[in-house]
């Protein structure tokens, strides 16, 4: 999902509309490898610290402590992070922003801290994952647009605003999914005396928080729909074309809203682990539909 998001922003938005950008195709591959390696390392360290809870929550899918021992997992973790730092600092140096390499160290430290402590704490872990997901998107602005200078003249400012909007969307949908996963993993988390939001507030209140966050996301999309409608319904002296504003784009956005409404409906009815597992999968589908709007809107705008 992270790789798809980065590739679509790069080749369906930045490269498509800007004459100048910082990362060429080779540099972008190295940048993307650094990002994916540090995230993969985060998954490994998370599984290492989750051995006991995964015996309850994900016994059939458990790898660390089953197929791979903890020592081997730690070795993989150190290897992936070392490669991520190497690639990250290389690409930061190559664009003249060496200090940006520390962002990958920040990613690795935050993912370790999340797995070690924050995952089982009240709400902090949920917000941390949402923030890191959004940061992974904003990271592309830092590496590809900041070095050339963000301004109105070269069009990079409006591209940055679009990316920031999607980063906000990713933050909210990831936060929603993290809370849903906490509810799904309630039994295993209770065994290790975790203090997650689901354990602290209980099922009903946790569901209400999920519904509230989903409603906020819907209102944010509604604001964009209002912009779409305002442009479509306005008579201009000259014909204009705006990215994401046409009849098919409006229908696509309505489809996304429909998925969110279906998510709310299923949330109201969710009562057991299987129901919340379905909501977790549905949230992934919503993320994917949201991300795929990037090439769809670009294609419609270009044609």
Description:
The chain is mostly helical and 303 residues long. The protein has one domain. The chain is 77% helix and 0% strand. It is built from 11 helices and no strands. It is flat.
- Integer count of domains: 1
Helix content: over 70%
Shape: flat
- Beta-sheet strand percentage? under 5%
For the CA atoms, what is the radius of gyration? 21 Å
Mean pLDDT, all residues: 88
Poorly predicted residue ranges: none
Order of helices and strands: HHHHHHHHHHH
Biggest beta sheet summary: none
Number of helices: 11
* Euclidean distance between termini CA atoms: 27 Å
Structural class: mainly alpha
- Count of individual beta strands: 0
Helix and strand topology:
Layout: H1 2-17, H2 25-49, H3 51-57, H4 70-94, H5 102-116, H6 124-144, H7 156-184, H8 186-191, H9 197-232, H10 247-269, H11 273-302
Helix pairs in contact: 1-6, 1-11, 2-4, 2-5, 4-5, 5-6, 6-7, 7-9, 7-11, 9-10, 10-11
Question: In brief, what are we looking at here?
Answer:
The protein has 303 residues and is mainly alpha-helical. The protein has one domain (2-302). The protein is built from 11 helices and no strands.
Keywords:
single chain, mainly alpha
């Amino acid at each position: 999902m992270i790789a798809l998001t980065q590739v679509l922003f790069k080749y369906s938005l930045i490269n498509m509309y800007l004459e100048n950008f910082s990362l060429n195709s080779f540099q972008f591959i190295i940048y993307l490898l650094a990002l994916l390696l540090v995230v993969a390392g985060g998954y490994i360290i998370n599984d290492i610290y989750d051995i006991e809870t995964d015996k309850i929550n994900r016994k059939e899918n458990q790898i660390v402590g089953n197929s791979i021992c903890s020592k081997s997992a730690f070795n993989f973790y150190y290897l992936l992070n070392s490669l991520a730092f190497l690639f990250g600092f290389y690409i930061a140096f190559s664009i003249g922003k060496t200090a940006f390499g520390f962002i990958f160290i920040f990613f690795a430290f935050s993912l370790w801290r999340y797995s070690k402590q924050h995952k089982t704490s009240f709400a902090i872990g949920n917000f941390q994952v949402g923030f890191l997901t959004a940061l992974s998107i904003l990271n592309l602005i830092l590496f590809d647009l900041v070095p050339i200078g963000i301004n109105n003249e070269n069009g990079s400012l409006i591209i940055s605003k679009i990316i920031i909007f999607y980063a906000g969307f990713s933050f909210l949908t990831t936060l929603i999914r993290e809370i849903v996963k906490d509810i799904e993993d309630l039994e295993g988390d209770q065994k290790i005396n975790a203090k997650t939001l689901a354990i602290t507030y209980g099922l009903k209140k946790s569901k209400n928080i999920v519904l509230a966050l989903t409603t906020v996301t819907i209102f944010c999309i509604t604001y964009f729909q209002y912009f779409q409608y305002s442009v479509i319904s306005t008579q201009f002296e000259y014909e204009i074309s705006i990215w994401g504003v046409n009849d098919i784009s409006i229908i696509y956005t309505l489809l996304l809203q429909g998925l969110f409404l279906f998510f709310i409906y299923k949330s109201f009815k969710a009562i057991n682990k299987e129901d919340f597992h379905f909501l977790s999968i549905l949230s992934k589908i919503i993320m994917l539909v949201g991300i795929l709007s990037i090439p769809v809107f670009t294609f419609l705008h270009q044609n």
